[in-house]
Write a structure and sequence with these properties.
The protein is mostly beta strands and about 375 residues long. The protein has 3 domains: about 20-110, Immunoglobulin-like, CATH 2.60.40.10; about 120-200, Immunoglobulins (Immunoglobulin-like), CATH 2.60.40; about 215-365, Jelly Rolls (Sandwich), CATH 2.60.120. The protein is about 5% helix and about 50% strand. The chain has one helix at about 1-20; strands at about 20-30, 35-55, 60-75, 85-90, 100, 105-110, 120-125, 130-150, 155-160, 165-170, 180-185, 195, 200, 215, 250, 260-280, 290-295, 300-305, 310-315, 320-340, 360-365. The strands form 3 sheets. Strands 14, 15, 16, 17, 18, 19, 20 and 21 form an 8-stranded antiparallel β-sheet that branches. The N and C termini lie far apart (about 85 Å).
């Protein structure tokens, strides 16, 4: 009985293999600047689809050979001259144990010179004092890159004299925290001009508190876990620029018993005009203050009676709800040490076991 079953199963797979559909004899014919003919055979007969496009990773266009037939011939029209196209063929066969059947990706290139087009135009680097734009063309062109600070009228430009198919341009001497509009014009050797659309980019600001030493009463109510506590000791999370919970937030001591505080050492006296305080929204302080000092002994109260509930709502890197209090100064201030104090009894959550507040980050900007 076992032998008969084995023979039956083997016969089934043998017949299935014979019935499996095949796509063969693929030929590329009659290439012109804007068309091509692709012929192939399917066994057994079927309806087949030819998928094609200019990007190997996103082949979206489709042409159909209506069947069932064995010999197929598909003409693609309205193609671009001098352009590489990627394609594959797909067909579904009755009684086949593998459906649909697809060929591997192949390619062809139309005749003639390529149209003068922009293949790629993007920012590849965005730093504090410059951003870098990368571009690629279908054929050689000369670039003029324009940029302007949003809200101003002075348009600046960077102009190249050489004709190239690809390149990089750096826009320097720009202002931190500002938004810039930019676009490019490309001209080929015949004088034809093509343009990009207008883009905008926000230039980052230097957070002078990043990585600075922190002391205070914000630790953690959980045992430190080497797999999650990526910033150690836990209080250093306040300046690690990571807006994450569980491994990017520092937790205070018992705020129902005492004030809770943290002190950031900026390493030297710095000039700054804005402080951003990020709380975990579920456990913020409803009454906190900011003090400044040059020696960590004599303190000047700058802001008092601040309420975390009035901060701007936002999401952390893992989707956790946060609140951000933005504290700005009419005139820039000078200090080395910045102290945040969450006042006794100021926890938003009044549950008896929720006797702490959670501080995710403090950022300080010039």
């Amino acid at each position: 009985m076992l032998t008969k079953t084995f023979v039956a199963v083997s016969l089934f797979f043998y017949i299935s293999e014979l019935c499996a559909g095949q796509i063969r004899d693929i030929q590329i014919k009659n290439l012109t600047e804007d068309s091509v003919v692709i012929s192939f055979t399917t066994s057994p007969s079927s309806t087949a689809y030819l998928k094609y496009g200019e990007n190997k990773d996103s082949i979206f266009n489709q042409a159909i050979s209506i069947g069932p037939v064995t010999n197929h011939s598909i003409t693609l029209r309205n193609l671009s001259p001098g352009t590489v196209y990627f394609f594959y063929i797909e067909a579904t066969f009755p009684y086949s144990n593998i459906n649909p059947v697809k060929t591997s990706v192949d390619l062809f290139k139309t005749k003639g010179l390529p149209l003068f087009r922009i293949i790629n135009f993007e920012v590849v680097s965005n730093l504090l004092n410059k951003f870098v734009v990368s571009w690629t063309l279908t054929r050689k062109g000369r670039v003029t890159l324009y940029y302007i600070e949003d809200g101003t009228v002075e348009r600046k430009k960077i102009e190249e004299l050489d004709f190239k198919t690809e390149g990089f341009n750096s826009i320097t001497n720009i202002k931190q925290g500002k938004t810039y509009l930019y676009f490019a014009e490309f001209s080929d050797e015949s004088g034809k001009i093509i343009k990009t659309k207008v883009f905008n980019i926000k230039i980052p600001e230097e957070n002078i508190a990043k990585g600075c030493f922190v002391t205070g009463t914000f630790t953690n109510f959980m045992k430190e876990d080497p797999f999650f506590d990526l910033t150690s000791p836990v209080i250093r999370r306040i300046t690690d620029e990571r807006l994450t919970w569980f491994d990017g937030t520092a937790i205070s001591g018992n705020i129902n018993l005492d004030d809770q505080f943290c002190i950031i050492d900026l390493k030297k006296e710095r000039i700054f005009s804005r402080i951003e305080v990020f709380w975990r929204s579920l456990s913020l302080s409803t009454n906190f203050s900011i003090e400044l000092s040059k020696d960590c002994k004599n303190w000047t109260l700058i802001k008092d009676s601040l309420d975390g509930r009035k901060g701007e709502p936002l999401k952390g890197e893992n989707g956790d709800p946060l609140k951000c209090n933005v504290i700005t100064f009419q005139k820039p201030v000078i200090a080395r040490f910045v102290k945040l104090t969450a006042k006794k009894g100021s926890a938003k959550n009044k549950h008896e076991r929720w006797n702490f507040v959670q501080l995710t980050e403090i950022k300080i900007f010039p």
